[in-house]
Write a structure and sequence with these properties.
By secondary structure, the protein is an alpha/beta fold. The chain has helices at 10-19, 35-44, 59-70, 85-89, 105-112, 126-129, 176-179, 192-203, 207-215, 235-242, 262-270, 290-301, 313-322, 338-347, 359-371; strands at 49-52, 74-78, 90-95, 98-103, 115-119, 141-144, 149-152, 158-163, 183-186, 251-256, 274-279, 308-310, 332-335, 351-354. Among the domains are: 10-186, P-loop containing nucleotide triphosphate hydrolases (Rossmann fold), CATH 3.40.50; 290-371, Rossmann fold (3-Layer(aba) Sandwich), CATH 3.40.50.
């Protein structure tokens, strides 16, 4: 006979549920003024906060950084024309056991003491925003009409909204009755040197290339890259981040070598984009200088003392061309993609370790391989 599984206590179940909204690792944020201290002061006084500034200036990252620093769950709502009161507060749902109430993101934050971040709040309907008014004064109450409930905000609850005033083509402005309830924190683009630092850090590109992009007016928020925790930094991972931005009829130019990125091009075309290619470089086998030739011979002579790092399958083919007939069985290598790993094994490398293509992951893998030979 099977004993029934005990159900978690309500408080424990709520804590477990809110853990999903906690930020475990510190998000990178480069402060450009006293915004961190002002944000913390507003939270200490339980004052609703409005972040004002142009797209891509770091408003969302600031909220993530402070949620981590304050050790509070962060619940984010991307507001749009269809955002209703039910989307924020909650609604009754029907399942096999009947009807039950499902808290919305705002109610979750109010009930359990999280930061509720309404991103681009002006996009929501005016009648929807009226529900936050009792939360933004000394009452700190959320009326839930469908349950005939008046919910008192948890002491740690914090309401933060972002607002981009004066955006060309914006459908509406934020009403004064809503705007005046918030403490405003102005956010803007950083200076050139700081922006170069941010772009290089966030995109992983060299500093000189970041400087060129900044000089052309390309902010970090406009550089799309695979998620930091993505298993691969390849076309498939890039598409996960790029997909929400692609619209039918959009013109896309893929800069590539002599071939490649066909999957990304086909996927973009399937989404309605118009895709063209620009061939900017060609992969060829290098011509080794005497010192480089000596390093290659040393690696072949003492394979246990050397580690090969491959981030390109073509590079393995070039290595085979540079050292024809070499015995790679004693050699060890790191590969940053499964296809590259398979190519290295096919060449004959005796030990190949796969690593995610980030600096920290490669360093850990290199130490792991080195430790096996100590």
């Amino acid at each position: 006979m099977l004993a029934p599984t005990p159900r978690a206590a309500p408080a424990a179940a709520a804590a477990l549920r809110m853990d999903a909204y906690r930020i475990a690792t510190e998000p990178y944020y480069r402060s450009v003024g006293d915004e961190l201290a002002l944000f913390e002061a507003a939270c200490a006084q339980r004052l609703p906060l409005m972040l004002k500034g142009p797209t891509g200036c770091g408003k969302t990252r600031l909220v993530e950084r402070m949620a981590w620093a304050l050790q509070r769950p962060l619940i984010t709502v991307a507001c749009n024309d269809d955002t209703s009161v039910g989307d924020l507060v909650g609604r009754h749902l029907l399942d096999a056991d009947g009807t039950h109430w499902q808290d919305g993101p705002l109610t979750l934050a109010v009930r359990h003491g999280a930061i509720c971040y309404l991103d681009e709040v002006v996009e929501a309907r005016a009648d929807t925003l009226a529900v936050i008014h009792p939360l933004t004064d000394t009452r700190r109450l959320l009326p839930i009409d469908r349950r005939n409930e008046l919910l008192k905000a948890h002491p740690d609850f914090q309401l933060v909204v972002s607002y981009n005033p004066g955006t060309p083509g914006a459908p509406r402005e934020l009403k004064a009755a809503t705007r005046q309830r918030f403490c405003a924190l102005d956010c803007s683009y950083p200076g050139t040197e700081v922006e170069v630092e941010i772009v290089a850090r966030e995109s992983g590109i060299p500093t000189d290339l970041a400087a060129s992009l900044v000089a052309l007016g390309v902010p970090a928020g406009c550089i799309v890259q695979p998620a930091a925790d993505a298993a691969q930094f390849d076309s498939e991972s890039l598409w996960q981040q790029l997909q929400p931005r692609v619209q039918a009829g959009m013109q896309v130019v893929i800069v590539r070598g002599d071939g490649g990125r066909d999957w990304l091009a086909d996927t973009l075309r399937a989404a309605g984009a118009q895709v063209d290619f620009v061939q900017a470089y060609r992969r060829t086998a290098p011509r080794l200088r005497p010192a480089e030739q000596a390093a290659l011979q040393a690696a072949l002579a003492q394979p246990a003392e050397h580690l090969w790092l491959f981030s390109s399958a073509e590079a393995i083919g070039h290595l085979q061309f540079l050292a024809p007939g070499a015995d790679w069985q004693p050699a060890q290598a790191l590969a940053t993609h499964p296809r590259i790993e398979a190519r290295a094994r096919a060449l004959g490398f005796g030990r190949v370790l796969f690593s995610r293509p980030s600096f920290d992951a490669v360093a850990r893998a290199a130490r792991a391989l080195h430790g096996t030979h100590e």
